[in-house]
Automatic annotation (TrEMBL), chain A:
One Pfam family recorded for the sequence: Proteasome
Protein name from the UniProt record: Proteasome subunit beta
Domain of life: Eukaryota
Tagged with keyword Nucleus: yes
Automatic annotation (TrEMBL), chain B:
Species, as recorded: Linum tenue
Cellular-component GO terms for this entry: cytoplasm; nucleus; proteasome core complex, alpha-subunit complex
InterPro entries xrefs: Ntn_hydrolases_N, Proteasome_alpha, Proteasome_alpha-type, Proteasome_asu_N, Proteasome_sua/b
Domain Proteasome alpha-type subunits: 4-26
Name listed for the protein in its UniProt record: Proteasome subunit alpha type
Keyword field: Cytoplasm, Nucleus, Proteasome
First-listed, main subcellular location of the protein, grouped into a coarse class: cytoplasm
Length: 203, 249
């Protein structure tokens, strides 16, 4: 099952997502990137209904870009998170709501890093650490045990690896591969992959 | 003639749409704007009327970007411009969302021109009173382009063009002096063209440069002043060269 989790450090935020695209018992691909770079300093890790996930995050991304062109200044992470929640809330009581859970991580110059937990029924929480999916049972427990404020990037990645290890060993249908992305003052970028099954071994 | 210039949807007997022509008049009264295309750079320059002392000049930006690789300057009714620019910005993002590709310069020009044309064929509306100069780079081939639209909704590509006040003089200058340039030379050519009709000085012109890699960059007043000084020096040198030999002979 899909696993998405993230945490905030002193001057960075990290989000991790599994990279399996699954349909019933078939794994379509195991290198699906579920963490979208929303703009230069924001990341959106999304899990849920595959069509909705892509459709919704791209829609948010284009509207965030439009805001920047109209106003000459990027949205803050808080504003983007609230906008996202608003869109989920509006669609919720219409014909078909988006079935997407989102962890939005961002870095703002004056505020620093932040992480927002937004679930599919438009709950919004600003958090230090958050997780979605079956993996959340294990990730939240691991993060509660090992997380402390002011962790360095290395310590945080170590904690991420601990979480991934728990997921791999304790979840019955554990996804094999994960992608880790980080956002800090220098922007949002991919940090690393954790692969236990190399996709496209024949390619 | 008076009977045929009220409604936009009425042709005059000799085939004119007077409202559209009057809109072009509004453009001719607007501030001068010039665009020059180089091999790796495209430049837009706009005349800035002297800023009122109490006005915050940063809030009056005449050259705007529609997307990372497209920019627009215009001459005419600025309030109409806001509407067109907003619609174009939305279209740029909408295009990216539906086809996962940035717009080409031609596409967005055609879109803006199409909008302007729509308002020449409806009842109860008036045309947009502005002509636009649109610059940008093709997102895949990296080829620079410059396009112009006008209130009638026609558009075409140009190597260099001007619109607004005294655009004829600027265009004449460009026709005489245009050559393929790149980088700083393109910027100089645009400023030289604009200086034909505008009082020289960094605070009277707004210049923006677009390159493939760095997108749109607005030039600072100091930079513009420096280039203007260079141009004046070159002009003075050319004058001196003309006069010098004649005196010796």
């Amino acid at each position: 099952m899909e696993c998405v989790f993230g945490l905030v450090g002193n001057d960075y935020a990290i989000v991790v997502a599994d990279t399996s695209a699954v349909h019933s018992i078939l794994v379509h691909k195991s290198n699906e990137d579920k963490i979208m770079v929303l703009d230069s300093h924001k990341l959106v890790a999304a899990s849920g209904e595959p069509g909705d996930r892509v459709q919704f995050t791209e829609y948010i991304q284009k509207n965030v870009a439009l805001y920047q062109f109209r106003n000459g200044i990027p949205l803050t992470t808080a504003a983007a998170a609230n906008f996202t929640r608003g869109e989920l809330a509006t669609a919720l009581r219409k014909q078909n709501p988006y079935q997407v859970n989102v962890l939005m991580a961002g870095y703002d110059k004056e505020i620093g890093p932040s992480l927002y937990y937004i679930d599919y029924i438009a709950t919004l929480h600003k958090v230090d650490r958050g997780a979605f999916g079956y993996g959340s049972y294990f990730c939240l427990a691991m993060m509660d045990r090992h997380y402390h404020s002011g962790m360095t990037v290395e310590e945080a990645i170590d904690l991420v690896d601990k979480c991934i290890l728990e997921i791999r060993s304790r979840l019955v249908v554990a996804p094999p591969n994960f992608v880790i992305k980080i956002v800090d003052k220098d922007g949002a970028r991919e940090y690393a992959w954790r692969e236990s099954v190399k996709p496209d071994a024949t390619a | 003639m008076a009977r045929y210039d009220r409604a936009i949807t009425v042709f005059s007997p000799d085939g004119h749409l007077f409202q559209v022509e009057y809109a072009l008049e509004a453009v001719r009264k607007g501030n001068a704007a010039v665009g020059v295309r180089g091999t790796d750079t495209v430049v837009l320059g706009v005349e800035k009327k002297s800023a009122a002392k109490l006005q915050d000049s940063r809030s009056v930006r005449k050259i705007v970007n529609l997307d990372n690789h497209i920019a627009l300057a215009c001459a005419g009714l600025k309030a109409d411009a806001r509407v067109l620019i907003n619609r174009a910005r939305i279209e740029c993002q909408s295009h990216r969302l539906t086809v996962e590709d940035p717009v080409t310069v031609e596409y967005i020009t055609r879109y803006i021109a199409g909008l302007q044309q729509k308002y020449t064929q409806s009842g109860g509306v008036r045309p947009f009173g502005l002509s636009t100069l649109i610059i940008g780079f093709d997102p895949y081939t990296g080829v620079p382009s410059l396009y112009q639209t006008d209130p009638s909704g026609t558009f075409s590509a140009w190597k260099a063009n001007a619109t607004g006040r005294n655009s004829n003089s600027i265009r004449e200058f460009l026709e005489k002096n245009y050559k393929e340039t790149h980088g700083q030379e393109t910027i100089k050519l645009a400023i030289r063209a604009l200086l034909e009709v505008v009082e020289s000085g960094g605070k009277n012109i707004e210049v923006a440069v677009m390159t493939k890699d760095q997108g749109l960059r607005q030039l600072e007043e100091a930079e513009i002043d420096a280039i203007v000084a260079e141009i004046e020096a070159e002009k003075a040198a050319a004058e001196a060269a003309k006069k010098g030999p004649a005196r010796d002979a």
